[in-house]
Design a protein that fits this description.
The chain is of the alpha+beta class. Helices cover about 65% and strands about 15% of the residues. The protein has 8 helices and 7 strands. A hairpin with a 5-residue loop joins strand 6 and strand 7 (about 335-345). The mean pLDDT is about 80.
């Protein structure tokens, strides 16, 4: 389809150039004079077209694009000289034919300015061929660059997902391991909750996007799993303002690292703390805000490798470039930490 479209564009452009003497001739010209003017200019048009396509189809891709610039310029100098010979030969032929059509058109040798005009015209045609070819080459390179960028993005997302799954599973297994030591019933319930989580991780997480309600179910399952482990002195508040059947597409596991971070740093050594999780969706804009007590890890705490939040930033940039905001930090009194991500339906 592209080849047919390009061919049609070329035919229409050169046809318009060739017919300009007929389209824009003086209204008071007689038909023989108009025909004479058209035929006389046709030689220059055909010569320009010949010079254009010799460059367009052969010289530019085989010489200029392969850095053989000296051969390219020399070839075009010879072509311009040959083109001047063709135009002059057409002029001679035209003057032999025209007397039979327009007796008033006698042989008039071209003046010196016409030679310079034709040279400039042929040089401009060569420049036009270069410009068209260069623009096409740039377009092809841009398409190849975008395809490479798309492939790179998909590869990075796959790599991030492959890193995230073991990271999440390791933290959850550590939680269950700690639970087994003092309450086997809760540990069994935790394994059931974990099986639901793994179903989401193993299946839904392999897709680029999942319905929002599935991601909400996953986060709720994770929070319930964490409720089993923490003490009653940890207050966990969840406010989810999302319909049970909300199918707004969302990148899977995009918020789970924030929840993990809240449980990791929101619980004091004495087992107290406060964690608040809020999620909402309005007109396609998804907001997730998590607030927790600020209890940073001690220096000897080796739990987790810290890759979770780094992955959140990478995934947001790859999946939602220009369509998200991420605010995070501590309150003025340093007692609370907050992290708020807003994913917009359109570029913000």
């Amino acid at each position: 389809m592209n080849n047919k479209r390009n061919l049609l564009i070329h035919v229409l452009c050169w046809g318009f150039v060739a017919c300009m003497p007929l389209l824009f001739g003086h209204s008071d010209d007689q038909w023989p004079r108009t025909l004479h003017h058209f035929l006389r200019s046709l030689g220059g048009t055909l010569t320009c077209a010949l010079l254009f396509y010799i460059n367009y189809l052969w010289l530019i891709p085989r010489l200029l694009f392969k850095e053989r610039r000296r051969a390219f310029y020399l070839s075009n100098v010879l072509l311009v000289v040959a083109g001047m010979g063709l135009i002059y030969g057409w002029w001679l032929l035209n003057n032999h034919v025209m007397p039979a059509i327009d007796p008033g058109a006698g042989p008039r040798p071209p003046r010196l300015p016409m030679f310079f005009y034709n040279i400039i015209m042929l040089a401009l045609v060569v420049g036009l061929a270069i410009a068209v070819r260069m623009s096409q080459r740039w377009q092809h390179l841009e398409e190849a660059r975008r395809e490479a960028e798309r492939s790179r993005t998909e590869a990075e997302l796959t790599n991030l997902r492959n890193q995230l799954n073991p990271h999440f599973l390791l933290n959850t297994l550590n939680n269950i391991y700690a639970l087994i030591a003092f309450d086997t019933d809760k540990a069994q319930h935790a394994v059931e909750e974990l099986s639901r989580l793994l179903r989401h991780v193993l299946y839904d997480n392999q897709q680029s996007f999942v319905p929002l309600y599935k991601e909400v179910e996953f986060m709720n399952n994770y929070v319930e799993l964490m409720r089993i482990r923490v003490t009653d002195h940890v207050h966990i508040d969840t406010h989810i303002d999302i319909a049970p059947d909300d199918a707004t597409p969302i990148a899977p596991l995009i918020f789970i690292s924030l929840v993990e971070n809240a449980f990791k740093h929101g619980i004091a050594p004495d087992g107290s703390g406060h964690i608040a999780i809020e999620m909402s969706q309005h007109d396609g804009d998804i907001t997730c805000c998590i607030t927790n007590s600020n209890h940073p890890k001690r220096g000897n705490d080796k739990s987790g490798s810290g890759i979770g939040l780094e992955q959140v930033g990478k995934r947001l940039e790859l999946m939602y470039p220009g369509r998200y905001t991420w605010e995070r930090g501590t309150t003025d009194d340093k007692t609370m930490y907050f992290s708020k991500i807003v994913i917009y339906s359109h570029e913000h």
